[in-house]
Amino acid sequence: METSLEPAVERAPAAPAAPAAPAAPWERWLEDRARVRATRGLHRVESSRELLMDLASNDYLGLSGHPEVRAAAADAVHRHGAGAAASRVATGTLPVHNELEEALCRYTHRSQALVYSSGYTANLGLLQALGGPGSLFILDAHAHASLIDGARLSGARVTTAAHNDLAEVQRLLEVNRDCANPVPRVAVVLESVYSVLGDAAPLVAAAELCARHRALLVIDEAHSLAATHQGSAVRAAGLADCSHVLATATLSKALGAQGGAVLLGGGQAGALREHLVNTSRTFLYDTALAPAAAGAAIAALGLADAARLDRLGRNARLVHDTLAADPRLAHRIEKGAGAVHSVMMRDAASAVRAAASLRARGIAVACFRPPSVPDGVSRLRITAHADHDPDALLTALHTIARIILEEES
Predict the structure, then answer these.
(1) Which of 15-29, 47-61, 289-303 has the lowest mean pLDDT?
(2) Strands across the sheet with 260-264, in order?
(3) What angle, 0 to 180 degrees and rounded to 10, lies between the N-to-C axes of helices 291-303 and 67-80?
């Protein structure tokens, strides 16, 4: 019998089976969601404002491309690198962060500031740090998604008051005060200027109401920092030194940069800032704001002066007055307290058509539809900018009025 001298060959183990295809329930769910969006006219796509007349973005002062802002961003990169490389409490705090916080305090007349990676994370981090089982948050019905998310994630009890209805806020404060087991810590949460309707909150009355009930007042200044009278709604209302008034803001709108901040004043400002540094999760566990964004924001604060704010105000009035002059639109234009004005549309489909038709004509406007609008009414949002030429703006507004009426005819 012949014996083979060839060595035994080991067979490689069988390759693992390919992963199974996604479960059918998820496929059906995605298909159903797409059909619902298409039926309701809610399909969204990524868009750009390049080469268009920009009446859609939040670059209110036109500073995102300003040469000094760009140069400051580049200089910060050269000095500090492309990123902070760590959270603020783990070696990520850079001199540019401290400089930005000092600049924010000078600009808003608040005594303490804490910078976050975005306005969204500033709202999440502040409310989370103030929340817990012993806290109650009373939110305005039109509060931004970041405030809603922050309140829900905080572990606090959350309730909602009708939009800009301080009588309802007072009732909810009294209900808590008079119940058998009142929640000891209460904060009322609202925005200085709301992003969809563009209307303003009654800050002075709200602060007085909260003071009487020993509650905090949290004000989101996303649409008023460097975009309204005196550059800050809290400052203009005479509330900059109030300990019980806490403000948040974004650096990505009027300042044309990126990032967010919590702004504090009064005798408790230092203690509150220390509390946030030690407990705010989006500060503790998020990489610090990129140096370029911080440097850009510092430069933008220096440019956000009274002259630019005046130009923004004039153009905002031109937007409202031009559209309101058409009797067919007068009852549908909502006058904003800042740069934003909204035109109510018949339905989501006509809003989408009008926005697309304007884009084809070189004009970018924002199209707001459910669920982005708190009252379920679709709108075109027209945003004024300080750097718009009034004559060019007037021509664009006449086109906007004409297209709205054509698309709804």
Answers:
(1) 15-29
(2) 112-116, 260-264, 245-250, 216-220, 185-191, 135-140, 157-161
(3) 150
- Rounded distance, CA 374 to CA 143, Å? 8
Q: Which two tokens stand for residue 361?
A: 């004509």
Q: Is 384 left (phi over 0), alpha (psi -120 to 50) or beta?
A: beta
What's the DSSP call for residue 89? I
Going 206 to 207 to 213 to 219, the CA torsion angle's sign is: positive
Distance CA 295, CA 70 (A): 9
C-beta of residue 192 within 8 angstroms of C-beta of residue 234: yes
Lowest model confidence (mean pLDDT) among 154-158, 218-222, 319-323, 346-350: 346-350
* ω into 7 cis (within 30 of 0): no
Pairing of strands 363-368, 53-55: parallel
pLDDT per residue over 191-244, tens digit each? 999 988 889 999 999 999 999 999 999 999 999 999 999 999 999 999 999 999
Please answer whether residues 323 and 343 qualify as being in contact, where contact means their C-beta atoms are separated by less than 8 angstroms: yes
Q: At 26, is the pLDDT very low, low, confident or very high (cuts 50, 70, 90)?
A: confident
Cβ–Cβ < 8 Å for 224, 232: yes
Opening angle at CA 99, ends 96 and 101, nearest 5:
110
Which segments of 303-345 are extended strands (E)? Answer: 333-334, 340-344
79: helix, strand or coil: helix
Instruction: Note whether 322 and 333 are within 8 A (CB).
Output: no
Sheet containing strand 379-383, edge to edge, reads: 53-55, 363-368, 379-383, 340-344, 333-334
Q: Which two tokens stand for residue 391?
A: 């004559």
The predicted structure's pLDDT at residue 267? 95
Are the CB atoms for 65 and 393 separated by under 8 Å? no
Give the domains, in start order, of the chain with CATH numbers.
46-61+305-408 (3.90.1150.10), 67-303 (3.40.640.10)
Helices (H), 2-94: 24-40, 67-80
Instruction: Give me the DSSP letters along 172-192.
Output: HHHHHHHSSS--SEEEEEEES
pLDDT of residue 21: 60
Integer-rounded Cα Rg, in Å, for the chain is 25
Q: Is the pLDDT of residue 256 over 90?
A: yes
